[in-house]
Design goal:
Length: 555
């Protein structure tokens, strides 16, 4: 009996054993239900063939395969294997035995139908309770008839029958539980392996993306472990040093700092590694560039919070530093300009008094001395004109505008321009468009702009020169052209024409064109210069019409 029981135990354990081997190789759940169902059916047939060769047994352990297939292969496999089991075991039996088997399988499938839908989502201990319920139904169905038959057959009672029943029942219980237990272990192991593979792939993918990101950002990044060994360097960091090779990973940070000539870099990293500082920063210059470097401690995510190394980041702040210096310079120049404007404004008052007394002396002086007083008054008027231009340029006032036509403002200025041209022996040609849309203009400032450009053109020409003034009315803008036939302006001087106090004339102040540019900008306009040496110069002033964004379109 012992040999028979052991052989049945081996047959009953075949499904879980073969599943362990197969599943550890496949590592997928897609075909596991089919595999368990097929192997369980084969083991059930093998147990039945053993019974045919060696005679009936008290409790058929092959039914463990039916329980295993019922739980892991689904309800169709449970019905199929149960029906096959019933056909194999009730062949040639009485009607009572057939009815008993049918009653058992109905009860078994009813319980299975209730517990199987939630079986896969339960934990391991809940699954064991489900298995206990199924084997309890099966063992009672098989043992109760055998014990009843033993009690009725008082003539031929086998003293070891009850012991054999207990042995078969214990084997049945252990095999049922072990089958589910080892299948669950296989599922958990493969699931953990799959999760580990997914995490490994994710880690590799994230690592690749992080390395690409570190190579793309405009920052020099160096990772250093707790021993001071470099673990990663991006391309920007390698470009910082001329004598640095690409195989610096594995090098000590002090060696890299020596190759790059950055002793301060080694010192701030040492503060993090040796003295426990969290963050340390420095500014240094390398290859003519100003760098801002920050070293920060990298700590682990555990409760201990131990340092795992240092991340060193250097940023090129040359342009930022240059911009900061330019802003500081502009603030100082702005302060000087405000002071100069204030002082210049105060100078006009004593100059007006001086001119008044000079004019009074001119009227009372002899005629032969009046030419001297006239020169003094002309120079005072010239100085006053320079002061007015400077104040107009320095002031940032709000311009009061009114609806007007550029052509009408220009026609008001033509008599004065013609008079200046006639005195110089020059001529003026007009090329005005017939109609022109109105603009929002400050007439006084536009007149000053036109007069400055016209006088610049007249002063740039010799006698017989021609000054051409024209207008154009485009869809989204209005343009004013002032062109002369002078000697032209070299390209290197054109770029500086609108700088305050820069002039190409011997008696110029360098404020006229700067004032013109300031007026145009206050009217949301622009000034362009087209000049060729020996051919003349053309100034083009463009005003954007109301409701149009011509500068956005042009850019």
């Amino acid at each position: 009996m012992v040999n028979s029981l052991l052989l049945q135990v081996l047959i009953a354990l075949l499904p879980v054993g073969t599943f362990q081997v197969w599943f550890s190789r496949q590592r997928q759940l897609r075909h596991s239900r089919l595999f368990i169902g097929v192997v369980s059916g084969l083991c059930m047939l093998l147990g039945h063939f053993y019974m045919i060769q060696n005679g009936p047994v008290i409790l058929d352990l092959g039914f463990v395969a039916v329980i295993t297939a019922s739980l892991y292969s689904g309800f169709p496999f449970a019905v199929l294997l149960s029906a096959a089991y019933m056909l194999l075991h009730v062949h040639g039996e009485s009607i009572a035995d057939i009815v008993g088997f049918l009653a058992f399988f109905l009860v078994y499938h009813f319980i299975l139908y209730k517990v199987s839908p939630a079986f896969h989502i339960k934990n391991r201990y809940a699954k064991m309770r489900t298995v206990a319920l199924l084997w309890a139904v099966a063992s009672l169905s098989f043992l109760v008839p055998a014990v009843a038959l033993y009690l009725d057959d008082t003539a031929e009672r086998d003293p070891g029958f009850l012991l054999a029943c207990a042995a078969y029942l214990i084997a049945f219980i252990l095999i049922a539980h072990l089958s589910v237990y080892f299948i669950e272990i296989a599922y958990e192991r493969v699931s953990l392996q799959s999760q580990l593979l997914d995490l490994t792939r994710q880690y590799k993918s994230e690592s690749i993306r992080m390395r690409r990101f570190l190579d793309m950002v405009p920052l020099a990044v160096i990772f250093i472990d707790a021993r001071g060994i470099i673990t990663h360097v991006n391309e920007i960091a390698l470009e910082m040093g001329k004598n640095v090779a690409h195989n610096v990973v594995g090098m000590h940070y002090t060696e890299l700092a020596r190759l790059m000539g950055l002793d301060a870099t080694a010192s701030i990293i040492q503060l993090i590694l040796n003295k426990g500082e969290r963050v340390s920063s420095e500014m240094f210059k390398i290859q003519g560039r100003t760098m801002l470097a920050t070293a920060s401690s990298v700590t682990d995510t555990g409760a201990r919070g131990l340092s795992e190394g240092v991340v060193y980041i250097a940023q090129d702040v040359t342009d930022t530093q240059r911009l900061k210096d330019e802003l500081d310079k502009m603030e100082r120049l702005s302060l000087v300009g405000q002071m100069a404007a204030s002082i210049t404004h105060e100078i006009r008052n004593p100059m007006a008094v001086i001119r008044g007394f000079v004019q009074l002396l001119n009227e009372r002086s002899p005629s032969e001395q009046r030419s001297y007083f006239r020169i003094v008054m002309e120079e005072l008027d010239r100085a006053n004109a320079i002061i007015n231009d400077f104040l107009s340029l320095a002031q940032n006032r709000i311009v009061e505008k009114e609806t007007s036509s550029l052509q009408s403002v220009l026609k008001d200025m033509l008599p004065l321009i013609w008079a200046d041209a006639n005195l110089r022996g020059q001529s003026v040609e007009l090329d005005l468009c017939e109609e022109q849309d109105v603009l929002e203009l400050n007439g006084k400032e536009i007149k000053q702009l036109i007069l400055n450009l016209a006088r610049n053109g007249l002063e740039a020409m010799d006698e017989k020169g021609v000054l051409r003034i024209g207008t154009r009315d485009l869809e989204d803008r209005v343009q004013l052209y002032v062109s002369d036939t002078g000697n032209g302006i070299p390209p290197e001087k054109v770029e500086r024409l609108f700088e305050p106090f820069y002039t190409t004339k011997e008696q110029g102040t360098g404020l006229g064109l700067a004032l013109c540019l300031s007026i145009a900008e206050r009217h949301d306009g622009r000034i362009e210069v087209q000049s060729a040496v020996g051919q003349g110069t053309t100034f083009i002033v463009t005003f954007c019409k109301s409701g149009y964004e011509c500068w956005v379109a042009a850019e």
